[in-house]
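Reply to dn_fold:

You asked what the input looked like. This is it:
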Amino acid sequence: MASSIKQSSVCRTSTAQWNQSIGPALSHSTPAPRPSKTILNGKTVTLEPLDKKHAIDLWPQIKGDERGHIWTYMSDEPYQSLEDFQQAVTTKSQSEDMVFSAIIHNETSKPVGWACYMRVDTKNRVLEVGNILFSPSLQRTKAATESMYIMAKHVFEDLGYRRYEWKCDNHNGPSKQAALRFGFTFEGVFRQHMIYKGRSRDTAWFSMIDTEWPLVKKGFEAWLDDKNFREDGTQIQRLGDLREKLREQGGLVDLE
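and this is what came back:
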């Protein structure tokens, strides 16, 4: 989708009339549109609006005690039956506040997870990606990374948001590592931020902003390039390393 939304442009005036330091002025402050239920196409995955029908194919991938760890840091508890899981998926799909997308693997045309846009603040052009479910078959794959690239690209280029957030339980090491790998910047920890599942949660905050997106985008695209993968599907260069090379080399990287 071609973007019709202008990215933030700032005036570097930073002193008020009383000689006080202030933030840069914006050339425009138009609210961003809310994310809608839409289809986002990629090479390995397609994101489509979450629907009750997706529960049937997802259920075998997330059920059972051996997969209970998937739910440790999510608001959901492990589901005990397909019927309960279908009801939960239906509720998520009908949410007005959170926009859920099913992650469909293009090779199988089957859902392998979900993610959503949440805490949408159109006035300030800020939203969060969260409630991310990666089934075991999606975890640590090219498809998982592409799904996050697609969602970020839509936020910045199609919807014109200024700030994209990632938050997680501070005990959730893999989620914190994923945020950094995807190009988010760690901002700190909100202590005793939430109570969930009968326990206290300190929340780690990460963000990505529109001025950072061009470099982050190039990093994603360089990593996702077929040239960056061996015949067995393993990566040649890591995403974070590619992004750092791009930063050092002014946006150019050689995959040969």
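The longest helix spans residues 142-158.
Hope that clears it up.
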